Write the structure tokens for this entry.
Amino acid sequence: MVTINWKDILSKALPLLPTLLMYWASYHLSLEKNAQEKKRDEFDRLNAENTRLYEELDHYRRLVAAKEREIVKLQKEIAEMRKSTTGAPMTGALFDEERKKTENDSN
């Protein structure tokens, strides 16, 4: 019958315990470091995308502002042309249905 001497097992396994603990701790630190790097990379990617989108939005806002200025300029030109042209309506749409009806009724 084989007898197990626990002192021999402990004397051989106990020196391995610190090494195993160091490997285990190193592995978990590596996992945590990789997770932090992944979060940092994701943050950097989202930050770069946010910056790009903000610049694009700013560009489109400037385009819209320029078009609005152009519309105001053209509206002023139209108003001045209407003032100088006889018989042209001064304000409103060119085809005013109610005005046509009242003019036809009065004739």
User: Anything to note?
Assistant: The CA atoms of residues 35 and 90 lie 69 Å apart.
